[in-house]
Automatic annotation (TrEMBL), chains A, B, C:
Listed Pfam families: YjbQ (PF01894)
Name of this protein: YjbQ family protein
SUPFAM superfamilies tied to this protein: YjbQ-like
Domain of life: Bacteria
Source species: Tautonia sociabilis
Length: 140, 140, 140
């Protein structure tokens, strides 16, 4: 079994945002030389996500509005106890749980084995600073 | 390390529905000949899920009602921007994020290493058309 | 490829609760002798979660309140059909879907390859009884 690990860094300009990182994951896979196996891609920060969905700006607008409704931003210490620690990002920890930490993708014949619309996104819920994503490929 | 990949196709008669696919995943595992390792099962479409929970019709009724409350179907272009593209399924992209894209299951001694009630489901949120699920087994 | 499997048992004193199980997962990894690969950690029960987030009591308080808002406990048979079976835990099946069943973590150089704040939690939504978590390490 071979394995290959890389770390990508993203710095999104807004508090919440979605970035298609499929090309970067494909490059890591190519560099790994692995043809059959699995890729793990996960946010290394707990207010960010890696998820798979559609690369359509209207949908991303909808995701942002929907997540804000499910877990509203509120920096006051009364709504979220986490924000009594000096943080203001309790909502971001919830948004990240809805969207997920990680994806595991099949590698078949040297490519990401995807359906027609699957793309990998970095989801940021407390941005404006650099954060890392881990990519690990295992297989043969 | 060995690997084995198969694609299953499901066509659910309703817009939303849940199908127990554990027997099909077990057959793929048997055909793989792998005794120790991991199985990845993921929806290849972005308005569908693969998840693990209970095979109880009342619970599936509850899931459907709950997901409809969290992310209501609304084909109009005013509620969801995604539905300005000619699509009507923005809600399905949200329901899928709540239920998840994929599961990773341990393979131990040639079987899915499950607790007493764990069953694998295909979750459909924009059905009435064929969609694929990828099953990949890696191990020895 | 090597593999190593262990089962941990947890019995939380309350209906809902969160327990940091990172030290136990690290011990399993150490016993496996695996230096490069993946760890799967999953709840074997369908009203519990394994997830990765912050070890901060205020946040856990917020998670509990937020999940109660998204999927309220209601033992009556009228709100949730699942509770017509004699169960009272339909809400717990929903809370578990939001928080997830499993995590897959990279093993690099013999350690869990984590960002600065990542910790693994057992999330319980129908507690006061023993439940199992599966840890499987694969790699070299």
């Amino acid at each position: 079994m071979k394995s290959h690990t890389e770390y990508l860094t993203f710095n999104l300009p807004d508090r919440m945002g979605f970035l298609n990182i499929t090309p970067q994951v494909e490059e890591v896979l190519r560099r790994s030389g692995i043809r059959e196996g699995l890729v793990l891609a996960n946010a290394m920060h707990i207010t960010a996500s890696v998820f798979i969905n559609d690369d359509e700006p209207g949908l991303h607008h909808d995701y942002a509005r929907w997540l804000e409704r499910l877990a509203p931003f509120d920096p006051s210490p009364t709504t979220y106890h986490h924000n009594r620690t000096g943080e203001d990002n309790a909502d971001a920890h919830m948004k990240r749980q809805v969207m997920g930490r990680e994806v595991v993708v099949a590698v078949t014949n040297g490519t990401l084995d995807f359906g027609p619309w699957e793309q990998i996104f970095y989801g940021e819920f407390d941005g404006r600073r650099p954060k890392r994503v881990l990519i690990k490929v295992i297989g043969e």
